[in-house]
Amino acid sequence: MKATEVPAIAGAYLFEPTPYADERGFFCRTFDADVLRSVGLDPHAFVQDSLSRSVRGVLRGLHLRSGAGEAKLVRCSYGKVFDVVVDLRPDSPTYLGRAFFELSGETQTTVYIPAGCAHGFQALTATADTSYRIDRPHDPAEDVTIAYDDPELAIPWPLPATSMSQRDREAPSLAEVLKQREG
Fold it and tell me: Transmembrane ranges (predicted)?
């Protein structure tokens, strides 16, 4: 497994495994504590695993947590997604930086998203399963959502959004969220 820094988001990494394929399919390691340690991450910090299943066009995000934030490892375990990370840490050298990835079940690449960054994705295939490994238990009271179509972010979503949660549809702009965080 290879770890690569994401230049647009300070502290973000891509973890690319080496799938071994044969006539049966493939096998690969999707989590390796030693590789995480090699880039300064504590593998024991992750306390919760979650999975979402989405159909083509479904858009989830942009989400982040208030308070201490939430670091996560995100991987598309089946299908393909367009994945987005936005750096919202005011003291970060990549503040307001954006990074886009295509994550797929074919490659099993994982993106590490530091606490304080917003995250979202869109399913590109008929079915897309997305796995999350999160560094603290979920508290819905800390959920923050930013409009996926905010013109300031200008995210190039590859498909029209066919479905999303009410919370995502009604999300405030980036400017509104930043103003709330300052106040």
Answer: none
**Segments making up each domain of the chain, as ranges:** 2-182
Enter the CATH code of domain 2-182: 2.60.120.10
pLDDT in tens, the chain (183 residues): 999 999 999 999 999 998 888 999 889 899 999 999 999 999 999 999 999 999 999 999 999 999 889 999 999 999 999 999 999 999 999 999 999 999 999 999 999 999 999 999 999 999 999 999 999 998 999 999 999 999 999 999 999 999 999 999 999 999 999 998 876
Which of these, 125, 50, 46, 130, lies nearest to 84 by C-alpha position?
130
pTM above 0.85, yes or no: yes
